[in-house]
């Protein structure tokens, strides 16, 4: 399934943060949503998952908007937020059962997938723990497990690496690669450009609420006329050039 953002204008107040944002994410593809803090990455994601409503433009999954059928739209999405969102009164096991109910998953199949993920992230002995016993990294792992046990068609991942140790980052990237191979479309927001350069198929570069460039690394290198430029070099070249004209 294809995620498409079309001429999206939106934000939090009368003055729009996003200014005619357009891009798409296709099956079998990991797209990096690239930008510095405040560029508009998280605002874009909040529109995609339905926390914000566009002033104009639209977001569709295979041509269908959230407004047309919220339940079907959201069932196709799995979201890993930058800041883990857990309920203090629920154990890890209860969080996973809540995910099963929310996505109407087959209980046995979902638990088998969850058990594999729990072992992968070394949380299989923590099912009776409450969130206040977890470190930030452990909370982030709960978000990752909850997302990937759904077998969603589209994954939205917002700055996922904070608090994760190198082994957990490797496991997350392996899960992303497997989901992509299985046909998922994945959008990952990050400003850790070195990692994005290694793992993403394409990039959407956002600066001050606008898409400044889009394409794979080779296309972006050609755009700035440097075949050896890193993603970081490209981003700063493009955004600094834009800022100089303002």
Radius of gyration: 18 Å
Number of domains: 2
Strand order across the largest sheet: 6-7-8-3-9-10
CATH-level-2 architecture of the largest domain: 3-Layer(aba) Sandwich
Low-confidence region ranges: none
- Please give the CATH class of the largest domain: Alpha Beta
Report what the structure shows:
The chain has 246 residues and is of the alpha/beta class. It folds into 2 domains: 1-9 and 26-40 and 50-76 and 154-165 and 176-232, P-loop containing nucleotide triphosphate hydrolases (Rossmann fold, 3-Layer(aba) Sandwich); 86-151, no CATH class. The chain has helices spanning 41-49, 70-75, 92-102, 107-120, 136-148, 166-181, 193-199, 217-224, 231-244, and strands at residues 3-10, 18-25, 29-34, 56-61, 64-65, 77-80, 154-158, 185-190, 202-207, 210-215. The strands form 2 sheets. A 6-stranded mixed sheet has the order 6-7-8-3-9-10, with helices on both faces. A 4-stranded antiparallel sheet has the order 2-1-4-5. Strand 4 and strand 5 (64-65) form a beta hairpin. Helix 3 packs parallel to helix 5 (136-148). The mean pLDDT is 92.
